Amino acid sequence: MIRVVVQEAPFDFGAEAAAFARGRTDLGAIVTFSGIVRDVADGLSVMEIEHYPGMTEKALEKIAAEAEARWSLGEVLVIHRHGRLEAGEQIMMVATASRHRKHAFEAAEFLMDYLKSRAPFWKKEHTEAGTGWVDATEEDEAALKRW
Amino acid sequence: MDVLYFAWVRERIGLPKERIETQAATVADLIAELKAREARYEAAFADLSALRVAVDQELTDFDASIAGAREVAFFPPMTGG
């Protein structure tokens, strides 16, 4: 089962992780990852995340479905926030559940690599030095090639 | 059709969305039309390698057809996660 959530409001990572795949006694491995707004230059005040409503949800569902097709997963969760976030806030999380850990770990990494450069989000940093859009990196693009 | 702009493309063109009547057959034709309009479009579309396009919310290429499309969106490479 795939669950994709795109929202501006904070989410409760602990509660989400605890509820994820609860009761699925057939799934022996759960991997969770959460991304935090990093203080990039000792002066990041705000990270602004823009997205493409409609396409964002579709793209995330497509990426999650691709993960389900490649690995044996019982449950997949993707939560991604948008709007204005401060350093230290949680931006997003993914969770995967499988019978065995290898599938859960690999699928979680795959989800992260793909949602970094194939889901329509754009980050803008507001620091003391000014404001600027975060550039995509060649590493992000190269990360897709291993899958 | 609706043409949408995100991130710095939106800022450079100065609006998030506009309705455009066009006979353009492909994304590239539409870009050529837009560039011919005004300097701000010319500036936004100057370097296509810095842009990505989605037609009806699916990522695609600049030579993709836009016949019958409801929505075309232009934006820089994505930075999620």
UniProtKB/TrEMBL annotation, chain B:
Gene3D superfamilies for the chain: 3.10.20.30
Underlying gene: moaD
InterPro entries documented for this protein: Beta-grasp_dom_sf (IPR012675), MOCS2A (IPR044672), Mopterin_synth/thiamin_S_b (IPR016155), ThiS/MoaD-like (IPR003749)
Single GO biological process annotation from the record: Mo-molybdopterin cofactor biosynthetic process
PANTHER family the UniProt entry points to: MOLYBDOPTERIN SYNTHASE SULFUR CARRIER SUBUNIT
GO MF annotation list: nucleotide binding
Protein name (record): Molybdopterin synthase sulfur carrier subunit
Keyword Nucleotide-binding included in the entry's annotation: yes
Record's keyword terms, sorted: Nucleotide-binding
Top-rank taxon, per record: Bacteria
Alphabetized CDD domains for the sequence: Ubl_MoaD
Family recorded in the similarity comment: Belongs to the MoaD family.
Source organism of the structure: Thetidibacter halocola
Stretches assigned to coiled coil: none
GO CC entries: molybdopterin adenylyltransferase complex
Listed NCBIfam families: moaD
